[in-house]
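hiii so um. not sure if this is the right channel but i have a protein structure encoded as tokens and i wanna go backwards to a sequence. like what aa goes where. can anyone help
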């Protein structure tokens, strides 16, 4: 289990990061043309966000944070409901990061910040 408010490394592939609840096996999420245009795709108990680049990225996960990161190039907010005690985050063929987030309904925001050496993805779960 990973701690909130800490920075973790994730290997991004296929330009996507998937956030999901339930088992550690990520859901299959299809990307329609509309989903590609809006920067995210939803599926059964999960959502995939478009990543800027493939390669190593920094990941930070927070719960009810009132302050977004200082440098943000894109912010996407989606509803996210889960009924397990943890959420998972991964990319295609990457390790799975798991975080303890209480069951409930959230507004999940993915803040993307592009940096020359490594992109930063900041995920905030905000209670509704």
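sure thing!! here u go:
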């Amino acid at each position: 289990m990973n701690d909130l408010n800490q920075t973790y490394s994730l290997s991004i592939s296929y330009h996507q990061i998937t956030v999901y609840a339930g088992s550690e096996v990520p859901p299959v999420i299809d990307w329609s043309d509309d989903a590609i245009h809006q920067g995210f795709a939803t599926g059964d108990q999960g959502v995939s966000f478009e990543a800027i680049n493939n390669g190593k990225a920094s990941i930070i996960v927070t719960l009810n944070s009132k302050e977004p990161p200082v440098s943000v190039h894109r912010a996407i907010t989606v509803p996210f409901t889960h009924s397990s005690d943890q959420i998972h985050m991964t990319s295609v063929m990457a390790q799975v990061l798991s975080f303890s987030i209480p069951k409930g309904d959230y507004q999940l925001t993915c803040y993307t910040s592009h940096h020359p050496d490594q992109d930063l993805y900041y995920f905030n779960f905000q209670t509704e």
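oh and The mean pLDDT is 92.
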